[in-house]
Amino acid sequence: LEDHRPRRTPARHVSGPYGDATAQDVAAVATPERVAGTVRDVAGDPVDIGPLRVGPGGVATATAHGRVRDCAVRREDVDGLVSYLAEVDLRLDLDVVAAGRHHGFDAELVVRLRITVVGASAAQVTTSVAPPVPEDVDAVLRPRGLQSRVLMKVGNVPPIVREEAVAYIADRLTHADVRAAMVLTTAGLDRGAGG
User: Fold this and answer.
1) Nearest to 88 by CA among 76, 71, 103
2) Rounded to the nearest 10 degrees, what angle do helices 157-172 and 32-43 cross at?
């Protein structure tokens, strides 16, 4: 006799973007505190930018030195991936040399970085930092003295500082030690996955 009962199709195992690990498993490893540590490694400490050309026709040179003052991280998942938005607060001492004279500025920069977990296993969680664009950088420059104030306007200094901050971060993302810091090690990530 022929069996006409409908055949049951075996249930397919569907993995998420992190294999058998859930977003909860991944977020337990890539905590905001650990992501902030990664971001600090990306920014560098101390921060050294320049020399860069500023002013009309690039007649002046500028260097900036400083530190990461603060790093605030909040989770903002994107397209089903565990993702964070970091705001890095940099305080810099900016020195512009024009016509042999030094012009000082106190610079406060806030750089917004998007960090996404792109891979996970039982041994590690791998993050990726999207290179910023100038619109991701807020720059407030406080000139020290009248001549510095004039130079800031004539030399179009704030947009140049934003562009150089972006170039600095993009360069840092190519460093081997920074890339290593984007890998967060863990043990037993897959335990309890899917449960």
Assistant:
1) 71
2) 110
Q: Do residues 109 and 139 make contact, with C-beta atoms less than 8 angstroms apart?
A: yes
Cut 0.85: pTM above it? no
Interatomic CA distance for residues 116 and 30, integer angstroms:
10
Buried b / exposed e over 80-118, threshold 16 CB at 10 Å, is eebbbebbbbbebebbbbbeeeebebebebbbebbbbbe
Q: What is the DSSP letter of 110?
A: E
pLDDT per 10-residue tile (average), the chain, 195 residues: 55 61 86 92 88 78 92 93 95 90 93 94 89 95 88 80 91 92 71 42
How far does the chain reach from its first CA to its final CA, in angstroms?
42
What is the Cα–Cα distance from 12 to 126, expressed in whole angstroms? Answer: 27
Q: Using omega within 30 degrees of 0 as the cis cutoff, is the peptide bond preceding 132 cis?
A: no
Element (H, E) at 170: helix 157-172
| Listed residue (175, 184, 39, 167) closest to 113, CA to CA | 39
